[in-house]
Amino acid sequence: MRPSSSTWIEQQMYTRERRGIFRTNEGYDTVAVSKGLDPNMVKKVLHPFCTYDAPAELTASGEKDGSLYPESIHLYHTEQGASVLGRSIYQAQDFTGLRSAFFTHHYVIPAERSEEVVNGFRQWLHADYAAHYDIEEGTELAQLRDIPVKPAAQVQPLELLSELKIDERIFKQLLFALTNAATGRKKVYVALDVPIDKLSAYAARLLEVLFQSLPYAYRRMLGFMTYSKEPESKKGIHVMFVEKGSLRANDRNIEREYIFDLAAGRMMNVDIELEHQPYLEFAWKHLNDIDALEAFYRYADQLLIGTEQHKQIALISYHELSIFYQLEQGDYTLYEEHKQPVLRALLGHMAQGEMTTAKQRLHALFARLEELELENVKQGTLPEPDLLDGFKDYLYQEQVTERGKAQLIPLFIHSIHQAAVQSNHALSLRYYAIVASHPELSRVFFDTVLNRGLAQSLFEPYVAKQFQEAPRAGDIVDLVCDWGTRHTQVLKLASFRAMAQEALIQKLRKENEPVKIANAILEQLHRLPRGRDEEIELADSELMDTLIYAVNCFLLLESDLKRISKQELLQIGFLQQPKQFIQWARRFDDHVQSKAEKMVALYDWFHASAPEVFVFERLSQEELEETQQIGLRLLQQELSEGQFARLVLAFYRDTESRQVEYGALLQFLHQSAKNKEVIYQFFQWSEDHHDFVRSKKPSPAYAAALLNYFKKYDREAFKHRTYRKHYFETSSVLGPVYQKAKVELSSPLMRLLARNKRALFSLVAIIIVVGGALLALQATGIMGADGKKEANPPIGQGDQTTNVKPEIPVSSTPVTTGVIRTPVDGAEKEVTVLTFFFASQTEADGFTPESIILDPGSAQQTLAILKREPSLEQNPLEGADEQQGDASEAGRQGKASDQGDQNEEADPLNSSEQADTSADSDTDKQQSQTDGAKTPSESTGPFEVRILLTDKHDIKAGTVIQAQEKKFTIKDQV
Fold it and tell me: Where are the stretches annotated Disordered (predicted)?
């Protein structure tokens, strides 16, 4: 195919002749053609449309009048862009006069002129064609400047449709089918209820009405055929008018196509919802107003220039554009019914293509809609949030007008204000969320609000809600910094500072670790970035000073010293400058000033590597005791050798005389040390501390406290070989104390022998003498090995030895059983509890069974223990005795200190022995009595020990159980 840039219209004629251009014998062939047509194009593109099938209705009757046979006008567009307009007609006789034939005449409009169909479709529909051609005149046809047109009357659309029995519904269906067929989806077959000889003429007139109702994009694509004997799928033909009766109901070839059998009153595959088809409604409404239709189609065509091809032929595009066009004309009906979809469609079309004159019309329309909604809001109407969200999205356009941008802020301001006036807080929050979702809109909106004095009504409620919803105190700081950086107006806004301060304090109060969080916030505020002018202004602002002051006040006023951790305490910044801090604290009441003094003392106590007693010099006695209790709690968290010097400060009762409560100190060690070795390490450390040892000798009160510690808490200390060799036997200073404690913890006989060495030597001598005599008697045979005179055994009786395991006696200790609920593995569970009522504290403390045996014997059952709860009973006099003992120790310590150098050679053990006479006596009595006896240092009991089993068991009264090699009888079931 030879390409041609000619704008001439070419011609081709085809019929049955004695010869043709492409054949030398008689038959159907092209008989004449313009010189601009390529032969291949003629054969491949034009010849397939050179055809005609006579109507069955006329051939059946043998009709010879050719004028009664309908002409077949057809239009199709080639792949190269050219348009082919032609007509095929029936001929009663061919050149021989013996048979019928047909004649086809084609006009080929080049691609350069194919756009003429948009506005010249009437001329094309009423083109004038040749009815015959004499090949003897030659085979070359002229090239034409224009298509010849025959006169035609003006079509009256409504009259024609009425005549063809096409109502509004069928017309809209037909128009819908054509728009879809033009895109190549389906074919449209129409059977008009008109005489066969009028079919093509009516089809051409109907096509004229349809073309004038179609947008330009469809006009450029649509191909048609005004007559065909049967429905036939031809490439490039979208709508085909066929003979009546040819659209058979069961024809599978056309069952999926659009069928308009108007003769039979049957339409197929066009059941569409016509109530929401704005373009079809517009076309029907202006069917007789050709100028209005053309104005709309020009408008739509201009707006779609530069858009993607599929949008130009999408029916939805023309639905939307018809609405925009009607809005321009002042008809807001469809907009009021479907505001959000219309606005979204408008935004979508504005975003396509470049800013042409037509696009400017869309931007102007958008501004008019803004004005309309703003007026509605001023009248009290609250817009839907999705609608405002659509107006907000205008800012995402690549090209926006100043008018469109300027009117957004008033629209949002009045909408939020109106929602507040109507107390619709939920809606106002949704409006705020839309504003905040676009950074540029948010910046301009809040700058406008702050600059115009609208902060109280439009800024503070929003910020208050933000502060309220912030989960953590750190989020409050982030919000404040964000506002202060983006809108520097808030830095001078007193109400904002007050809100931020209050919100920050409220969030700190709810933190699990408020002191830790407060310290982190102070560090954050002190290290604000300073890269930009806004950041520098924020960091140096009164707002930041206010927050820093608020956090410091919180740390001073609301930090709980009873719960504060060591790490949190040491991170409090103002404690690093104690003088300035104490000076600042004087502006508060006495209670706060006292707390400040304690905080400074605690900081110095735990910050220094080797703190001295002077850290307490500013504290009163009451403050000292409170501070020491707090310090003990902190020490309890990490008690180790490195903390011993710090630990001693917690037990000074008089900082001037450096009086230490040794008994309380050792009791604390017993309760808090993670193991005994830590306690022994403390003993070892104390040997080099002047508060415990003077002139290489332990303080008498300290020695007495050590003895009391071993007897009360650690009676097995000297039985552990490793501890004994590493700590006790190697000590030169405390060695005598350890030796005395070891003796005091031994059996009564050993203590007696240790105190009276002469008695020991006499006893040993007696044993040697008696032993020697017995051995001599045995050697002579006078006595047997058992020390008795040996006798002959009875006849028939030999040596017999019987091993009998002694029966375990049943203890008199009362035991009750019951059921309680207790957490087990994270869930509440019912378990059995056994309560033992011991007569003495010692017996209760020594009762630590590993399991419980139910019904001991052959059918015994072992029950697992969940946990043991220690003795609940306490000696009411024990505390008083200890205080009295501590006081006496302190008195003795003072007395020993006064005597000082005069008694350097005195034996500390003798002193401690005197100081602890009652204790020794108590120990002797305790060792000499059986289990369950009460010592003077114990209460009258009973002392409860509760054993919680792992499961629930039915243990009735009278049941015998065994625990720790003792049997008990269940007294009662509680």
Answer: 790-819, 870-944
